Amino acid sequence: MSTSELRHIGLNLGATDAATHRQAGNDVFGFWVFLMSDAVIFALLFATYGVMLSATAGGPTPAAEYKIGPAFVETLLLLTSSFTFGMASVAMKQGTGRRQLLGWMAVTLMFGAAFLGMELHDFATMFGDGAYPTRSGFLSAFFALVPLHGLHVFFGGIWIIVMMLQVLVFGLDARVKINILRLGLFWHFLDIVWIAIFSVVYLQGLIR
Amino acid sequence: MSGPNAGKGREIRSYAIGYVLALGLTCLAFAAVRWPTFAADTTLAIVFGLALLQMIVHFRFFLHISLSRSSRDDLQLVLFSTLIVALMVSGTLVILFNLRERMM
Hints:
The structure holds two protein chains of two kinds. Chain A is 79% helix and 0% strand. By secondary structure, chain A is mainly alpha-helical. Chain A has one domain: Cytochrome c oxidase, subunit III, four-helix bundle (Four Helix Bundle (Hemerythrin (Met), subunit A)), CATH 1.20.120. By secondary structure, chain B is mostly helical. Chain B has helices at 8-34, 40-62, 72-103. Chain B has two domains: 1-66; 69-104. The longest helix of chain B has 32 residues, at 72-103. Chain B is flat.
């Protein structure tokens, strides 16, 4: 096995850290199993949402509740955070210094927090309009799907903080590097789920 | 491609290309809905098409999924999961929409 070989999907450490690179193959594969089972959960919630879309029970409709501006800005925030985490991954892999790695992770965390803040504000507005989960089948499906993604982002944010602390305490040893690889996959995966939410939930609901 | 994911410059450029492409696709989908120019059905098809494209961009440039010979186990896992998801989602939609039609 040479170090120039791809051992798993995602950013490979390769020759920059040969020993960790060999170990990463199994570890990252396990994480992909988790990600894909998570994808199945989200996919079925999407299917439920699609079925429930017209079940508004005389209550708030998608077109009345969704605001295209905030949803678009949230998409840009999450997309940018995905890019900044990519930069963090490259900094980690290429060993360009801990400060650069921590900086990019902090920027990612900020974008994630801004995203969550906007999303919570959206939900609060919806609750204020009488659009709460028990109002109709449509709203139940909406609040099962979208906040679940928000919860993932929240725990992803906590994970970023934990990893920043691990980098500070343990330095960049094999375990920390592989954890950051996994965190990167998780964060990029959440971005993909959000693209589906933006298109299937928000844009579809707002098409006239 | 020499070595996994190539050198530093290539890596940064890959993320940057992915970011710009994803940004463009998001803006296109947003514009299609914000300033409607087509019929509703056509717009929906465009939005879904752009979303699918953008997911492929994310998988390619952010998650580095490639069809190269190594890392085949992972690729099979992802492809199999995609198959499962497609079966379950399309099955759910077909059955439940059919059920609703019969009950109306």
